[in-house]
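Tokens for chain A. Residues wanted.
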């Protein structure tokens, strides 16, 4: 049971970090495109790949700590549900250019950054 409490605690930290980063980025963006959520998803994609690869290759952290970081913190930090909602809102407002742009950019860049994180984690 203690493991689940720690994962929930990590999730709370991740959601607070998501809110802070997304809010900061969006306030500094001069557009209705959801750059805050996009930035969080890209950062989370890279961090997930990096932590997985680095800890796997170097024994950096225990399996429990990796679960804490990946399932807890990054699981709450990344925002796919918010991503889906933002896309639904863009579609509802017929903002098709940003709708397509967000789907293509987030998926292509997220996958590329996950690979970059895996590569960076193995390189160190």
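Reply:
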């Amino acid at each position: 049971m203690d493991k689940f409490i720690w994962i929930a605690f990590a999730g709370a930290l991740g959601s607070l970090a998501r809110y802070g980063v997304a809010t900061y980025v969006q306030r500094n963006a001069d557009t209705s495109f959801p750059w805050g959520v996009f930035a969080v998803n890209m950062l989370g994609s890279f961090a997930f790949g990096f932590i997985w690869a680095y800890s796997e290759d170097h024994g950096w952290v225990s399996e429990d700590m990796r679960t804490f970081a990946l399932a807890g913190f990054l699981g709450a930090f990344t925002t796919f549900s918010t991503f889906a909602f933002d896309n639904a809102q863009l579609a509802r407002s017929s903002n098709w250019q940003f709708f397509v742009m967000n789907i293509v950019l987030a998926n292509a860049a997220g996958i590329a950054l996950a690979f970059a994180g895996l590569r960076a984690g193995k390189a160190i």
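The chain has one domain: 2-123. The chain has a mean pLDDT of 92.
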